[in-house]
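Following the same procedure, the fold was encoded as tokens, giving this record:
***
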Amino acid sequence: MLVIGNGRLITRNTADPYYEDGAVAIDGHEIVRTGTTQEVRREYPDAEFIDAGRGLIMPSFINTHEHIYSAFARGISINGYAATSFLKILDGMWWTIDRNLTLEQTKLSAMATYIDCIKNGVTTVFDHHASFGHIEGSLFAIEEAAKELGVRTCLCYEVSDRDGMEKSRAGVKENVDFIKHALADDSDMIAGMMGMHAQFTISDETFELCAASKPDGVGYHIHVAEGIEDLQLCLKNYGKRVVDRLYDFGILGEKTLLGHCIYVNDHEMNLIRDTDTMVVHNPESNMGNAAGCPPTMHILHKGILTGLGTDGYTHDMMESYKVAKLLHEHNLCDATAAWGETAQMLFENNAKIANRYFRRPLGVLTEGAAADVIVVDYDPLTPMNADNINGHLLFGVSGHDVVTTVCNGKVLMKDRQLTQVDEAKVMADCRQSAKQLWETINNR
């Protein structure tokens, strides 16, 4: 038994959303009790106790779109790289990196990413992986890292024809092998999807292969209209818009996750809504690539389940939350825009998306939910109550304020110290591996 208490408890449960002095009790992988610290400690007097020190106790974060393969890109300088468009950014930077990743570098990239996630209070990660230098076994290598560190993850491999049909077929096989493996696993800690890059790098033949090969019970994870080029090429080559092409191949559905959706029109949004397909918004990445601002508020108001991701740009969901709100306020020239919507995306919709793949309720601290809990070092300057929680978080908290992270009932970080791995050793290995990757790229 574990009790985390003596903190301001944010449950995300509408029945009892906030306790000024609250605690959560954990037995095994599940939450068994929430209440005041006095009540919970009285009920479980022999449980191990973690003192939140009057900080915040809240559900850990969920990231619905990550890119582990980009972990070693920070600060990289690639000879001859001078991107002037989104497609040149893809080919010159990201595809260059993934074409040179070894299997060991993939695992170390996952270790680095998941460590940063834990330190920012993220315990559930939907990753969209690419390593065209070594495809076979790449998702299993990432799973090894997730298990070593104790995080929950949903994985897929980015199928694309950009490096030829042989590698495209290998990507499909990697997805199928991992999906079958994940479906047979009963830990509720791993899941698999059929990953795809974007329709403009995928032929009709490959779409048909993915559809024919995909096991039942899972959907697709694909980039959609992230750049205007995606839409233009779809119109030129197929005479239809991006979402229409996906619809024609049966890609849409309640288990499918569409990343970005910047250049989609009202008709496409209706298709997404009517098929109960999910969307994930990645504000910082879209801004960093100068790809444009998606109509996320309109998508959300359509009733489409829309979550929040980082696209590998950061591993701090609070950072993504803040930027999303500012982006849409600025784009709509409306200071009242996106206030409730961005909070809904992060704190409600990400959990709904994740629970289409994981059984135990996520993103909430209530009896029977997954024991995914964080403690945040935050001492509010102004009064805090159930009505202004999100205002405090938005303007007062960042991911680096997380001091303790618990996932599936296991303490992964306590008092900012990782408990499952030797962080210094892992980081030393990552630095050496990143150096080797950079040298390989620039000496090719």
Notes: The radius of gyration is 21 Å. The chain has two domains: 2-60+361-418, 61-354. Residues 423-442 form the longest helix (20 residues).
